[in-house]
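To: structure subgroup
Subject: Chain for Friday's discussion

All,

I'm putting the inputs and outputs inline so they're searchable in the archive.
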Amino acid sequence: KETAQIIRSGLTLYNMLTQFVLTSILLHTIHFVGDYYFQPWWMKLEKVESTDVLSIHAFFYFCIMFLGLFPFMSIWGWKPIMIYSMFNAIAHWIVDYISSKILSDVGNDIEVDPDDSKPLTRRVNLWKPICFLGVDQLAHHACLIALMPILFMGP
């Protein structure tokens, strides 16, 4: 009996970890699509200056998140998917608001070597903005994972 219970417990843990990993991959993929493919260049530039444009980006992000999770409605139910998408879009707006202000300041420090004989990649030092974009994405991914329990509330 004890051996069977240990095996069941191990399988339960394995199933939970598998569900967590697969859900994480799904959420990060949807995030990538919503934050990159459905954010045109003008929006990337204007959301720094305009909370209206940032709000449009967050709304598009909400729609992409909801539509990306829609096929899993039979698993999680529409309410958890709607609530998750909403809270994640709000968290996304906050992260982008803060990071866009910091990134615009970091962008002012970019140094360009005037030597035209060098390729552009050797003339522009993008280390600070790229590192900060990494921190921005880390914050987005932390939000995706922190809000994940909403999906498991049940239909």
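Points worth raising on Friday:
The mean pLDDT is 88.
The CA atoms of residues 69 and 81 lie 7 Å apart.

D.
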